[in-house]
Amino acid sequence: xxxxxxxxxxxxxxxxxxxxxxxxxxxxxxxxxxxxxxxxxxxxxxxxxxxxxxxxxxxxxxxxxxxxxxxxxxxxxxxxxxxxxxxxxxxxxxxxxxxxxxxxxxxxxxxxxxxxxxxxxxxxxxxxxxxxxxxxxxxxxxxxxxxxxxxxxxxxxxxxxxxxxxxxxxxxxxxxxxxxxxxxxxxxxxxxxxxxxxxxxxxxxxxxxxxxxxxxxxxxxxxxxxxxxxxxxxxxxxxxxxxxxxxxxxxxxxxxxxxxxxxxxxxxxxxxxxxxxxxxxxxxxxxxxxxxxxxxxxxxxxxxxxxxxxxxxxxxxxxxxxxxxxxxxxxxxxxxxxxxxxxxxxxxxxxxxxxxxxxxxxxxxxxxxxxxxxxxxxxxxxxxxxxxxxxxxxxxxxxxxxxxxxxxxxxxxxxxxxxxxxxxxxxxxxxxxxxxxxxxxxxxxxxxxxxxxxxxxxxxxxxxxxxxxxxxxxxxxxxxxxxxxxxxxxxxxxxxxxxxxxxxxxxxxxxxxxxxxxxxxxxxxxxxxxxxxxxxxxxxx
Length: 541
Hints:
Elements: H1 2-21, H2 32-56, H3 59-66, H4 70-73, H5 75-87, H6 91-98, H7 100-119, H8 124-152, H9 158-186, H10 191-194, H11 197-210, H12 220-223, H13 226-245, H14 255-277, H15 291-320, H16 326-333, H17 338-343, H18 347-353, H19 356-372, H20 383-409, H21 417-457, H22 463-477, H23 484-527
Helix pairs in contact: 2-8, 2-9, 2-11, 5-8, 5-13, 6-7, 7-8, 7-11, 8-9, 8-21, 9-15, 9-16, 9-20, 13-14, 13-21, 15-16, 15-20, 15-21, 15-23, 19-20, 19-23, 21-23, 22-23
């Protein structure tokens, strides 16, 4: 027995010691090649998103240069957005057909070529056509960057990749007007397109050396979900056009908008029916029934509403009420972007120490608070008063985006990565389009409401009104208006401008309130997320 114990004992003890002292599992390493691919792809996504806002900041200059009217010039942005939102959900399938390397590299090069071509456009039809092609190639870069992050990186490293992606999703829209305004005022509008060339060449080089060559699967073209592709493309294109042009055309008072709305509704309903019944759908819509992905999509949609909506509203306010030019507007909006450069790289570390849902909730709460800080605006509300709301907004966006992406896409299988990426990014962009359309209409209606209320208060029966008219009449007569009737007419016009300006200020305050309310709903959706299994111990290990 002693000999038996002697023979067996050390073996058992050694086994116990080995078990108890075994090193904890280490996070899988990621090759430099993989990081180069992720960095190159996220740089491309950054440029694609940047090209929405950088052009919007300089739209008036472009319209004047190519002889476009104010109404028609809007198609310079609309054509880009339509093409982009159509190609985003297509990219997962097309990457399978042509291989990620060929598909991504081809579209990266095309994006650069069309960027340069936009700067050389001579008239509006040329610009619209080239911008659509630029949007179609640039739109590929957004979901493909997201797909590479959630397929190439292990779970432990995905928060870092998603933090890089957040720079394209939240930082690019915020900094776009700053770059666009500076380039337009100092170099000319053509440089908002030329600015893509240097970073674009770097992006293409990084993708060329890092992406593995794989055979194309052209036979998938025959097996493609063509009914789904056609109905989706028609539906999204029609819907995007309705959202972009509806407010300008008085919504359903326009037969054009009515027809497009019917087309969008019918096509998208057919698309949903096809995707839920076909054997090989273009997009796996059943992912939406998963708790985290479904609530994550809702929160992401509302993030898009607020993100693009606030980037739309702030320049409108600064231009209409404060009379700022493009460069001055860009300087104000810079503080919604610059803090994110410092904060976003820290978010993966915070995700290691805190429940990511707490970061999502705090991020949305701060973003909402930044809008509520702007609901008591006055005529003097300008650069200094907007500084802290913009900084708070930047912090909120930086905290929300990365953990939201990580929690929403946790547990997505490799075969569903393309669908998840397409849906997640499409819904944020669609949220932006819905947000801008909603806010345009809301702003117009609230300005009319406040104008009616204020006009009723400015009565000739009021002594204050009569005194102000007398003061203005004397002012104009002392500054070169000899005829008292002309001076009085000028006084009426001046008071009308004051009333309209005040009505706009109140309408903008209401609009910020609406944005804040929408973000509270996003916060609630974020709280309904379930903590992913691989983050149960506190974060990404």
